[in-house]
Write a structure and sequence with these properties.
Blueprint lengths: L14 E9 L5 H11 L3 E13 L2 E7 L2 H14 L4 E4 L5 H12 L5 E3 L17 H8 L5 E2 L3 H8 L6 H12 L5 E6 L6 E6 L4 E6 L10 H14 L4 H17 L19
Parallel strand pairs: 1-2, 1-4, 4-5, 5-6, 6-7
Antiparallel strand pairs: 2-3, 7-8, 8-9
């Protein structure tokens, strides 16, 4: 009988907590977040805010968890295991937004806020009554806010049609209080260009546009990759650049599932 040699206990990896909804199809939400965190070598943990019945064709149902359940999950993880970064995703109601913002205010860790408003298929995921709470309570807690152009319009009313509009959008988002705004211009024609700014410095991130329709989970993946970098001790600019490289590869390798829009490939670096 072979007995394994005694080994030195492994060091504890950085820990990242995602506060988001579940995607039963596995392409976005909690599932995308945890896959991304694994790819970045951090320990992913989760606070489930909602359950969706979702596949490649869209969201067919969504059920929000009680605020008490969300708060209990958060406290259980943070008070015992601890976190080096937090990422937020789907927070569908004003009550959830308020509760999560309160929890974040008492947590000493960088926060990446992905203000999820609609799904890739156009399904609404944020109640209109929750918008004010996102603006006044959640965004001020963010180290980095990562809205796409639809979410920018939803939160600020700014309609972006070109790269100049990205600056206006970033300024409008920064007025709500995040330290950095990452405006994702993936819906614009041409290269996939994003603008990262804190109001004093600008960083333009460009990548060739891939002719691949299977991009489900892009926003969740991007935000989780940023949070993973921050947990590993990277600065905001470095973390965002690494996340952009990762999500660009994940989009390029996105694959078909079902009859609709398939997911990005979170494991593309290993295949």
């Amino acid at each position: 009988m072979l007995i394994p040699e005694r080994v030195t206990p492994p060091s504890v990896p950085p820990r990242v907590l995602t506060v988001a909804g579940s995607d039963s199809g596995g392409g976005a939400g909690i599932q995308a977040d945890l896959k991304t965190m694994l790819a970045f070598g951090v320990h992913g943990m989760s606070v489930l805010t909602a359950v969706t019945a979702q596949n490649s064709l869209g969201v067919h149902g969504a059920w929000e968890l009680p605020v008490e359940a969300v708060r209990a999950q958060y406290r259980a993880v943070v008070d015992d295991i601890g976190v080096q970064a937090v990422k937020t995703g789907m927070l569908s109601s004003a009550e959830l937004v308020a509760a999560v913002a309160e929890l974040l205010a008492g947590t000493d860790a960088p926060v990446v806020v992905d203000p999820v408003g609609v799904s890739k298929h156009g399904d609404p995921l944020l109640a209109a009554s929750a918008l004010d709470g996102v603006r006044t309570r959640l965004l001020p807690a963010a180290t980095v806010a990562t809205p796409n152009l639809d979410e920018v319009a939803q939160l600020t009313g700014v309609q972006v049609e070109d790269e100049t509009g990205l600056r206006r959008a970033a300024g409008a988002v920064l007025e709500f209080g995040p330290r950095w705004a990452l405006i994702k211009g993936g819906h614009l024609p041409g290269d996939a260009v994003d603008l990262l700014t804190d109001g004093a410095e600008e960083h333009w991130l460009r990548a060739p546009r891939h002719d691949n329709r299977h991009t489900h989970g892009t926003g969740c993946t991007y935000a989780s990759a940023i949070a993973s970098g921050l947990a590993r001790g990277q600065g905001v600019v470095e973390a965002v650049r690494a996340a952009k490289e990762y999500v660009t590869g994940a989009i390029a390798h996105g694959f078909p599932l079902g009859a609709g829009i398939g997911p990005v490939d979170h494991g593309w670096r290993f295949s």
